[in-house]
């Protein structure tokens, strides 16, 4: 199962993305599994909050599964981006608190997933980035919007245009991460400690706070549609074919701008 759920006595649903051989990359089955779990969390009163994490020490999520989208049509790419955007929006709008516990690489769709959560806690070894440009691509799961909201437009553009990976400490310094801890055990402990504190508050006040904060970042008012359109436009270029082929062949891409 690519999405594992466990439930503890405090009412926290721990959702673990588990595809260790692919650094927990988000393939279709994982995205579908994640949607099912989040929808269930909306409806099931046993679950009072969600901690979202990745299996193992190496990766939270290393992005969308690059091997799955090498031969998309523009229409399919647009639909896939919109589908992912709507799942991440479901997470962002969840009336129960959602904490990302980031244990390693949070890249591309993985960084976008962490940003859709209400807050982010990371281990020292975590690395954040939007490396899509290395593939001749742009972020497609809300990253162009949420990164700018969290760290400001200038820093967001620097990260998106260079594709650079940054450390957990750098991510904290720019406001992408709330807290950084040393080990995986400390990560789980702090995520639960913050969750437990939130769970002592009035659940309605928590839900209404999330709703009110999110209202200032309206899905309709922002550029999600433009992101999906430009993501789709990128997927039918020679550069995208070269970028993804080079990743799979483990070599540097040679881009031509076509
Ligand atoms: N997709 C598929 N497979 C992956 C991915 C990925 N994103 N990341 C890693 N893997 C696989 C590798 O191919 C490798 O598999 P194999 O053993 O079969 O060769 C395995 O995981 C281990 O990875 P590495 O050997 O590369 O491990 P390293 O420690 O050497 O490197 C890195 C780790 C730096 C994280 C490296 O794996 C990497 O650069 N990964 C890709 C990161 C990336 O570019 N992510 C962004 C993807 S694009 C994206 O997320 C767009 C979001 C919107 C999509 C919209 C949907 C259509």
Automatic annotation (TrEMBL):
InterPro entries (alphabetical): ClpP/crotonase-like_dom_sf, Enoyl-CoA_hyd/isom_CS, Enoyl-CoA_hydra/iso, Enoyl-CoA_hydra_C
UniProt keyword list: Lyase
Native source organism of the sequence: Dawidia cretensis
Domain of life: Bacteria
GO MF annotations in UniProt: lyase activity
Family per record: Belongs to the enoyl-CoA hydratase/isomerase family.
Official protein name in the record: Enoyl-CoA hydratase/isomerase family protein
UniProt keyword Lyase present: yes
Lineage of source species: Bacteria, Pseudomonadati, Bacteroidota, Cytophagia, Cytophagales
Coiled coil: none
GO BP annotation list: fatty acid beta-oxidation
Pfam families: ECH_1 (PF00378)
């Amino acid at each position: 199962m690519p999405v594992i759920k466990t439930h503890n006595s405090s009412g926290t649903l721990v959702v673990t993305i588990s595809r260790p051989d692919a650094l927990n990359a988000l393939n279709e089955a994982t995205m579908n599994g994640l949607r099912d779990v989040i929808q269930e969390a909306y409806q099931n009163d046993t679950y009072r909050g969600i901690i979202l994490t990745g299996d193992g020490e190496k990766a939270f999520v290393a992005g969308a599964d690059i091997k799955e989208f090498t031969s998309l049509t523009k229409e399919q790419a647009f639909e896939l981006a919109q589908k992912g955007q709507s799942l991440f929006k479901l997470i962002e709008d969840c009336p129960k608190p959602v904490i990302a516990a980031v244990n390693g690489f949070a890249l591309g769709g993985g960084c976008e997933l962490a940003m859709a959560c209400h807050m982010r806690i990371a281990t020292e070894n975590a690395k954040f980035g939007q490396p899509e440009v290395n593939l001749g691509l742009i972020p497609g799961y809300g990253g162009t919007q949420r990164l700018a909201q969290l760290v400001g437009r200038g820093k967001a553009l620097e990260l998106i245009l260079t594709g650079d990976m940054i450390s957990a400490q750098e991510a904290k310094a720019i406001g992408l991460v709330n807290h950084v801890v040393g080990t995986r055990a400390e990560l789980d402990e702090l995520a639960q400690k913050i969750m437990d504190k939130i769970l002592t508050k009035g659940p309605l006040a928590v839900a209404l706070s999330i709703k009110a904060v999110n209202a200032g970042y309206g899905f309709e008012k922002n550029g999600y549609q433009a992101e999906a359109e430009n993501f789709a436009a990128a997927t039918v270029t020679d550069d995208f074919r070269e970028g993804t082929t080079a990743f799979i062949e483990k070599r540097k891409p040679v881009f031509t701008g076509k």
